[in-house]
């Protein structure tokens, strides 16, 4: 259980922060950048939820919870020391990835195939979901970069990859099942 009764600690005043294993690192480090972007995705999902139906809101709420799990996973370095930890570290697991895949397939089943690229927009919900998509793509890129330097749970990378796809398909659903998608017209303004 997390207890936060003091919000500021002053421990980060010199540009460092504490990771989940207690180690201190620079706030500009790649691991902090990676889980910081995951936190940003979560904030954009909160905006999208303001425009969502009950069913979509429930799915987005589940994603927000997963994103906290993902942040907890990413803030805990060195997968090889998990067995030595006082408490088992929270790690992303395959079932979280599979749930996204199942939901993507279900949403996509009711959509016509794309015949053009889509511009981010349409309904308010779709526009916010496209923002979620682009921020999650950045979080994925940063997490993949982190994985070239340090150990990263492979399920964390898979989850981020599926998540941006989930947001894309959900945005199409939010645009009247794709019928109100805003299509790119190549060279339209030449």
From TrEMBL:
Gene3D superfamilies registered for this protein in UniProt: Cobalamin adenosyltransferase-like
Molecular-function GO terms, alphabetical: ATP binding; corrinoid adenosyltransferase activity
Catalysed reaction equations from the record: 2 cob(II)yrinate a,c diamide + reduced [electron-transfer flavoprotein] + 2 ATP = 2 adenosylcob(III)yrinate a,c-diamide + 2 triphosphate + oxidized [electron-transfer flavoprotein] + 3 H(+); 2 cob(II)alamin + reduced [electron-transfer flavoprotein] + 2 ATP = 2 adenosylcob(III)alamin + 2 triphosphate + oxidized [electron-transfer flavoprotein] + 3 H(+)
Documented EC number(s): 2.5.1.17
Pathway it works in: Cofactor biosynthesis; adenosylcobalamin biosynthesis; adenosylcobalamin from cob(II)yrinate a,c-diamide: step 2/7
Subcellular location: Cytoplasm
Single GO BP term: cobalamin biosynthetic process
GO cellular component: a single term: cytoplasm
Keywords of the record: ATP-binding, Cobalamin biosynthesis, Cytoplasm, Nucleotide-binding, Transferase
Keyword Cytoplasm: yes
NCBIfam families on file: PduO_Nterm (TIGR00636)
Family to which this protein belongs: Belongs to the Cob(I)alamin adenosyltransferase family.
Protein name: Corrinoid adenosyltransferase
Species name: Rhodovulum bhavnagarense
């Amino acid at each position: 259980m997390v207890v936060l009764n003091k919000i500021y600690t002053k421990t980060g005043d010199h540009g460092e922060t504490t990771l989940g294993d207690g180690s201190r690192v620079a706030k500009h480090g790649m691991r902090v950048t990676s889980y910081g972007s995951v936190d940003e995705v979560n904030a954009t999902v909160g905006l999208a939820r303001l425009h969502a139906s009950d069913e979509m809101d429930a799915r987005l709420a589940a994603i927000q919870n997963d994103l906290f799990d993902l942040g907890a996973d990413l803030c805990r370095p060195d997968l090889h020391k998990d067995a030595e930890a006082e408490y088992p570290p929270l790690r992303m697991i395959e079932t979280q990835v599979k749930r996204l895949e199942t939901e993507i397939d279900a949403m996509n089943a009711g959509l016509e195939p794309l015949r053009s690229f889509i511009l981010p927009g349409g309904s308010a919900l779709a526009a916010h979901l496209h923002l979620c998509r682009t921020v999650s793509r950045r979080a994925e890129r940063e997490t993949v970069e982190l994985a070239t330097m340090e150990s990263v749970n492979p399920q964390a990378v898979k989850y981020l990859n599926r998540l941006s796809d989930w947001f894309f398909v959900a945005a199409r659903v939010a645009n009247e099942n794709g019928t109100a998608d805003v299509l790119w017209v190549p060279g339209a303004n030449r």
